[in-house]
Amino acid sequence: MAGTARDTRLIFLRYVRQRMRSKVGVVFGLTQPLLYLVLFGPLLSRVGGVQGAGGGNTWRAFVPGILVQLALFGAGFVGFGLIADLRSGVVERLRVTPVSRLALLLGRVLCDTLMLVVQAVLLLAAGVLLGLRAPLWGIVAGLVFVALLALSIASLSYVLAMMTRVEDAFAPLLSTVTLPLMLLSGIILPMSMAPGWLDAVSRFTPFRYVVDAARAAFRGDFSSSAMLEGAAVTVVLVVASVALGTHRFRKENT
Description:
By secondary structure, the protein is mainly α. It has twelve helices and no strands.
């Protein structure tokens, strides 16, 4: 375990330094969710209280959804970086090192998660300026959900990248998966507003529970069933995705 932790730290720092050389990438990763926040959010404030927001503050329903969208798309696209490493021989060179195969995955996904958390904090600051009002511990809990979700999605993105190995196959596959997940998770509006059949379908989408939990946290409903269900689903997602990613990395490096 000590060796894995040391190797994870080395891989993590390597990719953090690599990301910091391109600060523009961190900023531009915020572009789409920030546009949703600035251009679409004010429209919701005129709806007169979105069901599920709590207290009539529509930002408490909208901002958590945008944070999950940031994790879904930001972490989902990290597989492109792995495809570039596969093509340039970076993964091939790592095969001959004694570094832990689990560390090869964890170092990368922890770096991806850190970048997503930084972006989420900046997005939250913009939300507060626009009118978001939520308890501090609720915001912290929401960030934890987003960080764990980002870790899970990044792991799955690397699995898909190693399965496809080329951008021409990875990009359409990613779009096919992420679009219905975004629509059925209630990211823009709570699924409690949806027709009965659509609400029922969305319950088969695990991200729906994470979105509902983040909204409950922003309302301060820490003991609600949405929080408990979201926490359980998030833990299962993280364990399953990291296990799958580790298995794939070990297979790739044997």
